[in-house]
């Protein structure tokens, strides 16, 4: 089935907007392809350095120009559950590469921080900027120019976007992303959320809270709720950079290892040395980006990708905007209920039919482009499958289920959970913002209440504890943007706001910071741009100003006389506390030149002014 005309119209708008930057990008990567790598033409000293520690077999193979060399870029560390399984992967990849007649080398490692560990802590101020550090680190790893393709080992929030930005900077190289999979299910996400709320209300102690959290985050693998990490995996599959069905297979299982071996062999098969050359810069085109946004809406994915996908697209010379997200959200129905948009976790989603069923449903509904390139070489139709083990213990593929295994978790486009994706762009005299309403009840889509202004999340928590927020209110938490403090997630505020809402108050959040991939039931206008530190109008808001957040009409406004509003001075804040400690002094240059959330929120602008 061809894509619907309305989806095509947005795609054509993106193509037109990118008509100068995209051809220039393709010209650059084609020139890089033509220039190398040609290991046989390297100076002997260069070449000797590149394989000095290799086995005699690999040295002989790399001395010429006929054996493919596969770069492994890894985000392994053994503190974080999602990345701990990667410890074994290089050995699995090297062995699979030898079986395929190639060589694999760990080209470099990249940092992998966990927003779950740093949530509400000062380390979170480094989180968004870590994406650009990861991209730069990957660039260093690949700068040796001795590789014919790369496999990328990364899962979580900023890691995959950073790896993607770098992979596209080396867009002449084929790239396959290799997931490690989600941890097995622990206690239900609903039970975990209730325990957090009880703790915030002072009804249970730290020991009970820690016991609950430990039963939820209990083993190797990605956290099982549908936040940014698992949204990353969905994106890599629907954009054609995973093998079909690879995203949500649990770690340390025979199928997981088989898929890693298959990914390795596929990466070697699509280099310029063979007949199926498939550079990543050609896979990620305007249609692939649109498919990614559609997948985000259909699954109620992370709001963080309204920042990350813009940065990823710009790395490939593609210009997308928040308006594209908004317009596609009106066209794409919500097909999943995964926590926080439901009670199921990603393991339940996978068991109900997973990515194979979802992609099939989107194809049948004419909501995604089928005619795209993928690492599997099949187009998107080839992703209407699920991965299994064959009799020899290797990965094989069969048609995905035609019927959802659990309609409470996963549906097709003929009977969705809701008609739209639930991600909207708000505009008004405060600025532009993003809101995710897929788990917000309809009677909370419009909130009109007086502002209570804070300059830190801790200040809001203190006010909550003091009983100062027991009323209808809009919490305005400002000076949380990239230039102010690196744009931390403010997920720590979720329990307090949820309690106020459960008490019957009409509450909302307005912030120039981020919320979380787990944004939930309280309406939250986030990523307000321009940010307060950059002269944004959010810095004009005063305590008691009436704020109207209207997700139905896409508006975010202060109900103040226009003349008074225009005459108001911008508030300032003492941000010196953001400048030191937990490594923050190392990122002063990043804060100084960071771009707005609407152009990716980082320091790598790909030729676009901040």
Describe this structure in words.
InterPro entries: 6-phosphgluc_deHydtase (IPR004786), Dihydro-acid_dehy_C (IPR042096), DiOHA_6PGluconate_deHydtase_CS (IPR020558), ILV_EDD_C (IPR056740), ILV_EDD_N (IPR000581), IlvD/EDD_N (IPR037237). It is an enzyme of class 4 (lyase). It catalyses: 6-phospho-D-gluconate = 2-dehydro-3-deoxy-6-phospho-D-gluconate + H2O. Pathway: Carbohydrate metabolism; Entner-Doudoroff pathway. GO terms for molecular function: 4 iron, 4 sulfur cluster binding; metal ion binding; phosphogluconate dehydratase activity. The chain is an alpha/beta fold. The protein folds into two domains: 324 residues, no CATH class; 156 residues, IlvD/EDD C-terminal domain-like (Glucose Oxidase, domain 1). Helices cover 37% and strands 13% of the residues. It has 23 helices and 14 strands. An eight-stranded mixed β-sheet has the order 7-8-12-11-10-9-13-14. A hairpin with a 5-residue loop joins strand 5 and strand 6. It is globular and about 75 Å long.
